[in-house]
Amino acid sequence: MYEQALSEMRNSLKNTDLIIVIDTQGTVMYYNDFNDIYNEAGNQDNIGKSIFQLYPWLTKENSTIFKVIESGEPLVNQFQAIKTTDNKPVSAINSVFPLISGNKLLGAIEISSNIDGSKQPNKNKRNYAIFNAKYDFDNIITESTSMKELILRMKNMAKSNSSVLIYGETGTGKEIAAHAIHNASRRWDKPFVTQNCAAIPSTIIESILFGSVKGSFTGAEDKAGLFETANGGTIYLDEINSMPLEMQSKLLRTLEDRKIRRVGDNKDLDVDIRIIASTNEKPQDLLSQNKFRPDLFYRLSVVTVELPPLRERPEDIDPLCQYFIQYYNNLFHKQVQGITPELKSLLTRYQWPGNVRELKNCIESAYNFADQDWLDIPHMPPYILQALRDNGQTTLHDEKGLSHLLEEYEAALIGRALHANKYNIIKTAKELKLPRQTLYYKLKKYGLMKGEI
Predict the structure, then answer these.
(1) Mind listing the pLDDT tens digit for each residue in 198-232?
(2) How far is CA 355 from CA 169, 197, 314, 402, in A?
(3) Distance of alpha carbon 91 from its chain centroid, rounded?
(4) Among 128, 57, 56, 121, CA closest to 94
(5) Contact 307, 153 (CB under 8 A)
(6) What average pLDDT does this structure show over 350-355?
(7) pLDDT recorded at residue 302
(8) Lowest pLDDT segment from 200-214, 291-305, 355-369, 409-423
(9) Which of 393, 282, 284 is nearest to 348 (CA)?
(10) Euclidean distance between the first and the last CA atom of the chain, given in angstroms as a whole number
(11) Domain match, 330 and 281 both
């Protein structure tokens, strides 16, 4: 066993962020934080301190190094949720080995790799990413008073173990809210497991959620389900409205009894989990359409969170655009400064059926055409213009008026298509999905006939 442990120890050293040695009382004998991720003090300053002084959130129960101190046996590639020097939750893979002289246990050495910030992806990151909640409340970008009040409410209810039901249209940030609730809870250092219920075929959803025993069905193996995997932590069930009614009744039993049973097994397993569920349809509509069991709804909705759509918080469009611009500047290696006042005016009038996710995609689309310091109306996807026209939003709200802005936008789009098609009218009309006569009319209207450019 120890020969294998030595081999594993050598492998662990290849992607190491932290090495720490403690004695049996928890006193630090050696400390090396290679990237200053885990503790802001110098490496030498930490020697002689209690490990609990370095990490106030650590306990003997959740510490991998103390498990080895108590058992005297090595642990290899064990997941542990930790907090960084700026109190951000991250995930680590720890390998811990006992230090023995003769028959006496002297302490343990822990080799830790931060799987959220590793420079190179590795097999540990793939295996354990499911257990880590990536977002906290700081990741919610908002200037909206209603959203700030909602965040405060979510922070308060995160401290309990009550089930949570999140409702919001597609793209409003339901998953980010679920991550943040977990990371603000007392379960932050335990597993966070997510599953989109719409992504599981109805034939295998029970074994995915509750696990299976070998031989229970064709191809079945002894395998823990997601509830068992999340034991001690949180399970997030997205699009729970897609879960079959029969499975909803089994979920209800888990909520009531805190027990699960693997498919094909004859015994129950106790689980300690918090359930967060979400739906992109109004719960009352789901109840009236018999898509949601009323008893399950009342069990899940002990705490409810309704995320407002983006159209109800237009003050968030500008800060969200700035956030996405910073993100795509890094991705596209550009130096875009922001959005023009004209584009901001247009974006605040659009209804955003896809909400924040749609806005992010629009900014990404704009980066494919932007060749200047500011994103402008012509950089937006054409359907934005069409939607505004269809809604008849031509009321004057600023100096130019929306009608004039839309005409500028349309002219720029036609000009771009003309140039891309080398002024071939047939190809341009086909790309813009316009009859040729309509295109000729617009070319003349905007002064885009070849002799006029």
Answers:
(1) 888 888 899 899 998 887 777 778 888 899 989 99
(2) 8, 21, 11, 21
(3) 14
(4) 128
(5) no
(6) 95
(7) 93
(8) 409-423
(9) 393
(10) 80
(11) no
Determine the structural domain holding residue 107 and report its residue range.
2-122
Q: Determine the Cα–Cα distance for residues 118 and 92; give it in Å rounded to an integer.
A: 10
| pLDDT, mean of residues 173-198 | 92
Which of 318, 338, 342, 317 is CA-nearest to residue 328?
338
CA distance 17 to 117: 10
- Residue 115's pLDDT is 58
User: Among residues 306, 339, 369, which one ends one of the domains?
Assistant: 306
Summary mean pLDDT of the chain:
83
Cβ neighbour number for residue 304 with a 10 Å cutoff: 14
Name the pLDDT band for 129 (thresholds 50, 70, 90).
very low
Residues 6+ positions from 230 with CB-CB distance below 8 Å: 191, 192, 193, 271, 273
Q: With beta carbons less than 8 A apart as the criterion, state whether 197 and 239 touch.
A: yes
Domain boundary among 90, 122, 154: 122
Residues 294 and 325 in one domain: no
- Within-domain flag for 127: no
Query: What is the radius of gyration, based on Cα positions, of the chain?
Result: 28
For residue 3, give both structure tokens: 């020969």
Q: What is the pLDDT of residue 350?
A: 92
Closest CA to 414 of 396, 427, 401, 395: 427
C-alpha torsion angle, residues 137, 232, 132, 83 (rounded to 10): 70
Asked if the model's pLDDT at residue 49 lies above 80, the reply is: yes
Span 58-81, average pLDDT: 82
Q: Over 90: is that where the pLDDT of 78 sits?
A: no
Backbone angles phi, psi at 21, to 5 degrees: -120, 130
Residue in 7, 8, 6 with CA at minimum distance from that of residue 99: 6
Q: Say if strands 89-101 and 75-83 run parallel, antiparallel, or are unpaired.
A: antiparallel
Write the DSSP symbol of residue 353: T
Q: What is the rounded distance in angstroms from the CA atom of residue 384 to the CA atom of residue 362?
A: 9
Coil, helix or strand at residue 269: strand
Instruction: Mark whether 332 and 278 lie in a shared domain.
Output: no
Phi and psi dihedrals of 374, rounded to 5? -130, 135
User: Does the residue 72 lie in any domain?
Assistant: yes
- Structural domains in the chain (count): 3
E-assigned strands of 57-118?
75-83, 89-101, 104-114
**In a shared domain, residues 330 and 269:** no
- AA identity, residue 418: L
Of the given ranges (2-11, 180-189, 196-205, 234-243), which has the lowest mean pLDDT?
A: 2-11
368-397: average pLDDT: 76
Longest Cα–Cα distance in the chain: 94
